[in-house]
Structure formats: structure tokens, C-alpha cells
Amino acid sequence: MPPSSPILKVAVPTPLRRSFDYLVGQSIIPAIGARVRVPFGRQQLVGVVIDHIAESTTPSNKLKPILETIDDQPLLPAHLFKLLLWASDYYLHPVGDVFNTCLPGLLNKGEPAILEPEYYWQLTEEGEQAFSNLGKNAVKQHKILNWALQHQGVISPEHLNQLELIPSELKPLTEKGWLIKKQIELSAKPYTQSNQPLALNPEQHDAVSAMQQSIGQFHGFLLDGVTGSGKTEVYLQLIEQVLIKKQQVLVLVPEIGLTPQTVQRFQRRFNCDIAMLHSGLTDRQRLNIWLKAKQGLTSIVIGTRSALFTPFSDLGLIVVDEEHDVSYKQQDGFRYSARDLAILRARDEQAPIVLGSATPSMESVHNVNQGKLTHLTLRKRAADAKPPHIKVLDIRQRHLENGLSQALLDNMKRHLENGNQCLVFLNRRGFAPSLMCHGCGWIADCQRCDKHMTLHLQQKRLHCHHCDKQVFMPKKCPECGEPELFPIGLGTERLEQALIKAFPNKTVVRIDRDSTRRKQAMQDYVTAIKNNEVDILVGTQMLAKGHHFPNLTMVAVVDIDGCLFSADFRATERTAQLLTQVAGRAGRADKPGEVVIQTHHPEHPLLLNLFTQDYQSLSQQILSERQAGQLPPYTSMALFRAEASTLQYPMEFLNEVSKQLGQVPGLDCFGPFPAPMAKRAGKMRAQLLCQAEQRGLIQRAIKPVISIIEQLPSARKVRWSIDIDPQDPF
Ligand SMILES: Nc1ncnc2c1ncn2[C@@H]1O[C@H](COP(=O)(O)OP(=O)(O)OP(=O)(O)O)[C@@H](O)[C@H]1O
Ligand SMILES: [Zn+2]
Fold it and tell me: What Gene Ontology cellular component terms go with this record (predicted)?
């Protein structure tokens, strides 16, 4: 420890890849890991002390004292603090921004890390009586009291979110004595029992026992279980063992809004404190969950990517569900992979980690091959469900009406006549991917992107899915004035209309990002589907993920051909995952399932391999191709991206970056090239790809020159970023 007053190395939220040194000044010496308020230029910023040092490289007359010590102890548990520093180093991302991304918003603003009391509202007898006498106009009061009646007389803070109310709106009812406001006790609610665990089948049983052995120590598992094999039940029973040992559990899921069922299953199973981190929370609720987990008051935290940064007092297990999902990689700012960091976190905290999927990523399969993860398999569907029958439907020369062949419609008809549900899958929302003029051939392009605009007929708008620009649908061609404009191609909206026409007596719902914008919308659709109020589901990949609809017996894949031919080396993996997942929605209960895939390329090796063998053999094949092509996971990649108003600036900048990286043995730089989609949101984009056979070499090559790169004059003319282990070629 340096003498009495050390110099503080502080992570300040700036775009620079460095920390800044400060003097302690009049404050008490902040601990490493505590937040401090510091002067920065003309601003005052909140930073985190990352080290105490004896001497600074900054001249002493330039060093300024901090303004305030905010925390009297380290904010983060030591493991998590170390993980963030490591991640800043590995992803070559500014350390201040790493903290800023990972901490709850209120802590970044300098709010004290103190739990605020939370309240719930209890319905009184008067309230119950008042409910039956409410007048017609008391719509809001009716909604509130009705909710309480349906939830054992309780309105919790989460309920308020769902009701889209703020606490002050309940005040009139508490004043009338219809509700009583009570403080939620902040004590750990210890785990006492689980409700109705299922009897595991032999494969599930083996998986749980293998993993149970590792509680209390680090071990990585890949739970590779076909769709509907009951992976969730395996997680639940393993989690129970961890809860019995009084440890905490972190569950990462791809998109929480899409999987309300999974969340409810957790809540029904365990009578302990379960926190859900989702986008609908207020900043205060988010902070409270964070603090409760840190203090051990919460037993299970379920959340998306960023939930990985929740502190725990005693973390006993990490589950990464659907580990192959691309949403685990953040695509802007701090571009981390939550799955990869989760493995490191588990190692640091001496906890087992389970990566679960029916379609594991090539990275995880490779880790199994290398002995870094233990492979556990569930080959059979749970209970009595059989794997679905898959039919590749050759549509060459066949007449298509709105993208649908008669053979496909006949197939659907058979299932619908038996009272079952069909899912029609198309990964493109909107009515049609473009709009064309019949007079001159003009196409509605986005002015700001190298892409067509998608027609959304319901809203009578053209919408660019890349930059979000929206304009009214033109009444006539802007080039030649011709009034006849016609949609080209197929989107979910158009498919929905076509299916309503083809099956006029059936109920069709469309599920995509547009139709589920309203809060609760997804939940309402799921309930309707489960209650058999829906016959045909049309939708995008939102429907492919994790859903369990017992009455769904047929899945139709309408247009997959575009995915079979792509320049991205990950396209085969992604398409195989998507097809396997969507096919896996069919026949999950006692009725057999059928999958029909329309294609113009029935001989395509991906389709042949995927359905004559299985995902497991296909993944080994994909891996040997990657190895032969010297591609990840056999090599590491980093992608420099840059953009500006003209292509010249990003190209100049990236050329200099390439020169700076020079001749590092083992490191190859490709480019710079214009990005696959060169123009986006009005910016011209270019990229430089770096590849190395050895892990870590990229960091070793870039780190020594990063501050030179940051200070290049050409860097000032562009917006640029580094993406380590990029997942997205654009
Ligand atoms: N041991 C069991 N006995 C009876 N039913 C089971 C058993 N295990 C799971 N199930 C049931 O099987 C169904 C499918 O399970 P689950 O949703 O967990 O599968 P999954 O592997 O997560 O599927 P996917 O990867 O396709 O989302 C659920 O309805 C679940 O309740
Ligand atoms: Zn655009």
C-alpha cells in the first residue's frame, strides 16, 4: 500500500481508452472500487476508482483533486470488479464506459447505493364492497380494484408496471380506505420448498445428477437438448439444489418479453425472491434489484444480456438459456458477449455454469470438442412427444399465390380440420420488402441507406428497417407520376392477409415486432394461443424462440431461400439454428408434429444435411469447414468499423490503422473495404478485419498502438469502433 494519500486511478466515462489520475484532496481516501465525483474539463463526472498508485505519469501540477467520495466501500464485489476490468482490456473498450454500461443508471448519476423501501397495496373489505358498487365512469378505479381482486388482494410494484400506473394514482383509493399501502419487508425470504417438480426422464435425471456434483465449484456444461426435451425442467431441478445450499442463481435469457411462460414457471416453482430484469422497469426498481441481489436478499435473478453484471453475495449457478442466441452479443458501444463473460464469471466465483440450447453455437461445440465444456445431451423429447416429421417441398414451377403453394395450403388444411394449430414462419415483417412503379420501374429506396424501404400497408407507410426512417406511402410515383404502384415480395402482413383469405373461417394472428409493440401484447397472444382461440399463427423469429404450444402440430416455412445463399460465413450456422428452432415448435405434446419447408433449392446441402442427419452432425461438419477455412472458432477476429459522410474518411482512417498494426507475426489484416451495406443512416461505412490464429494476439497487437490510433488526425473525421469476436458482418 502506498503512503497515506495515494493517487487515484479513476475510470471516467469518456470515449478514451484510458483511466485518469486524481488526488484525494480533502475527501476521505476512497477504496478501490468506490465511486467518486471528479472534475473533467468543464464537467463533473462520476467515475470508479480502479487503483491506488504512488506516482502518476501526469505532471503533478496538472493533477486535480476529486470533488467527493460517493461510496464508503467498494461498490462491486471483488470478482465482478475484476471481471469488468478484464472485459475492458479484452474488448479494448474504454474502461469508464464499461462501468457506465454495466452499472444501473442511478448509480452512474451518483445516487447513493442504498435500498429504498418498496411498497405494495392491500385491498380492504371496504375496497371489495366498493368494487361491486362502482359506477360505470370509474374506469380506472374498476381496473385497479379488479386487478387486486384477481391477485389475492395485492397490488405489487411489478403489478403497477403491468397496469401502467404510477404509485400516486393509487392515492385516491388509499384515502378512501379501499387500499392500504404497506412496506415490503427487506429480509431474505429463504427458500423452503419447490412446487410440483416433474418426475425426470432418465436423460434429464443424468444431466441433473452430473451437474449437481459441481455445485460449489467451477465447471462448464453444455446442455445440448433437442427442442422440447425439457431443458427448463433440468434447470429448475438443478436450481433447487443450489437454493437448498442457500446460494443465488443467475439465469440469462435472450428476450424476456418473449418468454413470459418461462418466467412464470420459475415463479410457480419456487417460493423465494425472484427478480426479473426487463426493459419495463423504472431506474429505481432496477437499482433495488441490483442492491437486493448484492445483499443476498434475492435468490434468483432472471434477465437478458446485461443481467450478467448483477452483483451477488453468493452466486451458486449461472444458466445461459438458448446460449446460441445472437442477442447475447451487444452490437454497439461496449460490444461484449454475455455468454463468454458468463463463463469467466462462473470460473471466478467458483460456480457451475450451464449453457443450454437445442442448437448450440459453434463456439460451444468447439469448446466441448476441446474438453472445456462437459457435453450433456437430451436426445428425446420430454414425456411422450415425438420429433416432428420434416418435409422439404420443392416449389420450382409451382404456382405461388402470395408466396404460398397449393400443396402447403392443403397440408395446413389437414391440420386445421383436426382442430390443431399451424404456425406459418417468415422472417420479414411488413407487407412487402419493396414498392415499385408500374410505369417506370422506380423503386422506393431509403435515401439514407443502401436498401429498399419496406411497405407497411396497415399504417400506409414506407419504413426503412435499417435507419428507422418512415414516410407516408406515396399515392403516385415520385418519378413519373404513375398512380399504379405495386408491392414486390412478401412480408408477414401480406402473408396474414393471404391466409385470412385462404382460411376465412379460421382465426389468424400475426406476431412480429409491429404487432407486439404494446406492453403485454406478447403475453396476451400467448394466452390466446394456449386457450386455442387462435388457429393460424403468422410470424417472424419471435415465434421460433422457446415457446411451448401443445396444440400446434404444423410449422410451415414459407421463404428460406434467401438465407441459403449468403456471403457471411456464419449463415449456415444461423439458418440451421433458425430452422431447427422453428421446426421444434411443432408437435411438442402428445400430437405428432409436421414441418413443411418450401424451397426452390431442395438439393441444397444445408437442407439435406439438416434433415437427413441432425443438428449435432451438421455442426461437426460446419466446424470442419471453419477449420479448413481458418475461421472462428479456430481463429480470432476483430473488426474495426468507421463511418463518416463520405467513404474517403473511413477508408483513410482504417488504412492508417492497418499501417499502425504493421507486421505483427501471426496477425492478418484484410481491407479496409466498404462495409457490406456501405451506406446506412446517411453515413458511409468501411471496415478493417483483423484475424489471428492465436487467442489474445489481437489484443497484444492492438493495445500498444491504441492511443496512437485514438489520436490520429484521421480519427477525428470519423466515428469508429473496435468489435472483438464480431458476430455481425455489417
Ligand atoms: N420429465 C418430464 N415429464 C413430463 N413432462 C415434461 C418433463 N420435462 C419436461 N416436460 C414438459 O415438456 C415440455 C417441453 O419442455 P421445455 O419447454 O422445458 O423444453 P425445452 O427443452 O426447453 O424446449 P425448447 O428448447 O424447444 O424451448 C414442457 O411442457 C414441459 O413441462
Ligand atoms: Zn434507411
Answer: primosome complex
Mutation test of ligand 1: which of 233, 236, 580 has the most ligand atoms closer than 8 Å to its C-beta? Answer: 233
Q: What average pLDDT does the segment 656-668 reach?
A: 88
| pLDDT tens figures, 484-519 | 999 999 999 999 999 999 999 999 999 998 888 887
State the DSSP code for 630: T
Cβ contact 51:92 at 8 Å: no
Q: Which of 222, 229, 581 to mutate to test the pocket of ligand 1 (most atoms within 8 A of CB)?
A: 229
Query: Is 437 assigned to a binding site?
Result: yes
Q: Which residue has the cell 452466486?
A: 315
- Percent of the chain residues past pLDDT 90, beyond the cut: 66
Residue bearing the CA closest to ligand 1, atom 7 = 382
Confidence of residue 258 (pLDDT cuts 50, 70, 90): low
Is 23:110 a contact under the CB 8 Å cutoff?
A: no
| Cα distances (Å, whole numbers) of residue 223 to 233, 290, 301, 305, 724 | 12, 28, 20, 19, 26
Residue type, 653: F
Separation of CA 70 from chain center: 32
Complex prediction ipTM: 0.97
Q: Which three cell numbers stand for residue 692?
A: 489471428
Instruction: Give me the chain's average pLDDT, please.
Output: 91
> Helix 571-583 vs helix 615-628: angle between axes, to the nearest 10 degrees?
170
- Name the residue with the closest Cα to ligand 1, atom 24: 227
Q: Which residue type, as a one-letter code, is found at position 662? A: G
Phi, psi of 427 (to 5 degrees): -90, 50
564 Cα to the center of ligand 2, angstroms: 25
Q: Is the pLDDT of residue 396 over 90?
A: yes
599 φ, ψ (degrees, to nearest 5)? -155, 155
Determine the pLDDT at residue 1: 43
Cis peptide before 633 (omega within 30 of 0): yes
Ligand 2 mean position to 447 CA, how many Å?
A: 7
Q: How many angstroms is it from 680 CA to the middle of ligand 2?
A: 6
Provide, rounded to the nearest whole percent, the portion of the chain with pLDDT above 70.
98
DSSP-derived pairing of the beta strands 7-11 and 43-53:
antiparallel
Query: How wide is the angle at C-alpha 103 spanned by C-alphas 519 and 337, nearest 5°?
Result: 80
Residue bearing the bigger pLDDT, 163 or 445: 445
The verdict on whether residue 446 carries a ligand-binding annotation is yes
Tens of pLDDT, residue by residue over 66-119, are 999 999 999 999 999 999 999 999 999 999 999 999 999 999 999 999 988 778
What stretch of H or E contains 597?
strand 594-599
- Residues within a 6 A CB radius of ligand 1: 198-201, 204, 225, 227-233, 358, 382-383, 546, 548, 584, 588
pTM to 2 decimal places: 0.90
Task: Please tell me the distance between residue 290's alpha carbon and the centre of ligand 2 in angstroms.
Answer: 37
